[in-house]
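task queued by scheduler; priority normal; single chain, no ligands, no partner chains; default sampling; output format set to structure tokens
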Amino acid sequence: MVVELNVSCTQACVCLMFNTSKQVRFKEILETLGCTEEHLKYSITPLLYTKERFLANKGPDGKGKKELNEDGTQAPVTWDSLAQDDFLAPCLIKQPKRRQIYPALKPLPPGQNQPKKEEVLDEDVKAVIKERELKMQLALVRVMKARNTLMVNQLIAESTEQLSKYFVPEVRLMRKQIEVLMERGFMKRDDDDQKKIHYVA
């Protein structure tokens, strides 16, 4: 089965390095990409420490990373245990899907647990929703600024056409953003016809 990896630019660059090498030291990736250690950890954390991980930390000897607690018991390997001399290597995805999504995770201070994948995806979804709401508002304002007066359905249709290259919004969401823009004073309803919208310069 062909698996599509949905990754960031930095993550893609890291993955491509394994086309020519079976394993690469973390510091070599840093030097090649020219980014900061924090940025690299931020990007590759989901590739290393999620259930559908694509990479494994092989440690400085390339045989596997092992962390021990003070009492000698096995400790979980987390991003704060990733050292510059550690080797990284591709590993099999245990439960592959046709499309694997690896949203970047922000490293936490040493000793803290990484957020659960569900929590990370939830934050990612919230960010996408916020971005789409802004794009809907911008499209609605652009149309109204050009047309000055439109019926609600026509406004939604023209704005949706502008947004179609990014995504196709639901009508109810567009109506909601129209209400938001009216509350903010960008447009108003006609006094005699509630289905007619006027642009407020």
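post-processing summary
- The CA atoms of residues 71 and 111 lie 16 Å apart.
- Confidence is low (pLDDT under 50) at residues 106-115.
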